[in-house]
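Homework help board

Subject: predicted structure for assignment chain

Our instructor gave us this sequence and asked us to write out the predicted structure in token form, then describe one feature. I got the tokens but I'm not sure how to describe them. Can anyone check?
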Amino acid sequence: MTESSPKNDVKKTDPRRDQQLIEVIQQLREDIPTTLQPEEARRLNASLAQHLSRAKQPKNRSQSVQKAVERIEEYPQIRGLFSEILDRSVSWYEKPTSTGYISIAGDLFDIEPGNLMVCPIDPQHYQRYRRNARQKIVCPHHHVDLIPVETAPPLEKP
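My token output:
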């Protein structure tokens, strides 16, 4: 599911990793308002601020950083920016070369994802992994329930 390279193998043992991720997330937050719709940008930035605030306590740091990365993953455009900034900013991360979906959170934190759910109106607009079979996830922009990626309409290539 994720690509492995010697560069990627280092990240899980780097003692500065969480602090470096926090710095990248803080940098990313500046780009969110110009990338997402205003209401979505506000919600995502508020959520990231909350996770970063919790990350100030050493006992919560790793879990809070992981949750922040999981939130970033819900937005493909933001996930791409995060991956690019991370690739430029730290020596232990290498941006995936695959054209398919790669879970950054899963790669960074060894998480097994649930079903990938997408917006039925625009599957590239909003994506999120479902945590359990009963979870209902709604697209914050279109206000419709997400559907499994397998049942989404095919993506049009530009």
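Reply (TA_rk): Your tokens look well-formed. For the description, you could write something like this. Residues 1-11 have pLDDT under 50 and may be disordered. That's the kind of observation they're looking for.
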